[in-house]
Design goal:
The structure is a single chain. The protein is an all-alpha fold. Helix content is 71%, strand content 1%. The protein has a two-stranded antiparallel sheet with strand order 1-2. Helix 1 runs antiparallel to helix 2 and helix 6 runs parallel beside helix 8. It is globular. The protein starts with a helix and ends with a helix.
Amino acid sequence: MLQHILIAFFASLFAVMWIHPLVVRIAIEKNIVDNPDARKLQRIPIPVLGGCAVLFGILLGIGFTSAHCGCPSLFIIITAMTIMLYTGTMDDILSLSPRLRFIIEIMVVALLIMANKQSIDNFYGLWGLSTIPQWIAFPLTIFAAVGIINAINLIDGVDGLSSGYGVMASIAFAALFSLAGDVSMLTLAVVTAGSLIPFFFHNVFGKTSKMFIGDGGTLVLGVVFSSFVINTLADGSVVGKFTENGFGLIPFTLAVLSIPVFDTLRVMLARIARRTSPFSPDKTHLHHLFIELGFSHAGTTVSILTLNSLIILLHLLSWRLGCSVDVQLYIVIGASLLSTTGFYYSTKAMSDNNLFKRMVKAIGRASRIERKGFFLTMQKLMDKI
């Protein structure tokens, strides 16, 4: 199995390395770019077809291992990813209405549930619950999956954040599926990471080769991570055996998704409180706060991924210390709220003379390494590839 997984990983990685400059050229020639405005952080138009390159790598990686991996469930997931790529790309070019996108997302998730006959229908011991009836599981899965899709979409605000998060989350789920022996989900996790790594380097370090992943790419990633969560929490899941050792599957999945999910909830609830649409764009996400505090794009990405990784490690520590599944969940929720809502509003309320705020700003200034030293060397390398 290891040989096939490595083949899938490197096939997806090299596929994106090859196709990335071609997609950049097409996007520039056809003027498929994201133009700067008052809300966005870039200063020049940037190609916005990164999702096409990433999906190409995922499909090629899966194709290389299809003969050795009896994974019929991946066909439905690929279909869902393709639909979301088209939807997101049309949104990037034509600006679809939030309502239409929302309806398409619900339909795609319903397709995943019905075609694969899987839903979030087992709590695996959380609050003393195990299998739950389908009349609860179906709407719960729709709600959770659509929420994840939008959370991944909304985290895409600075260079490398959505792709860097995608690599981190894919590795976390890959570890879980590898230990459980779930070959189909392990394959998907590995090719997703492989496809995102070259894109991440171009997105962070590239100048002429820089491209945004776009709504097409983030919606594809949203489907991938929704599929991971559904597969993990479905009744009879092969990873369910870990609960025999007190491992909380719901706390784990929430820990992996913590920053995108809790930051999106905070932003949307704040918009509703202001009596505006929860989908109306603004500059109140966590990554906007880091930029405001003086962090570079790279520094913002590293900071947010570090926070998310610490929450995952905190969950693993709580499990190793023998905490119950319920306590594991409460620890993850508390850490997530502290890292998003608590950090955001407390920092906003602090005066510029506050010691903690001055320390955070000092870290932000230290992160501004763009266009010099190692960063400049990497930029030249990426632009040549």
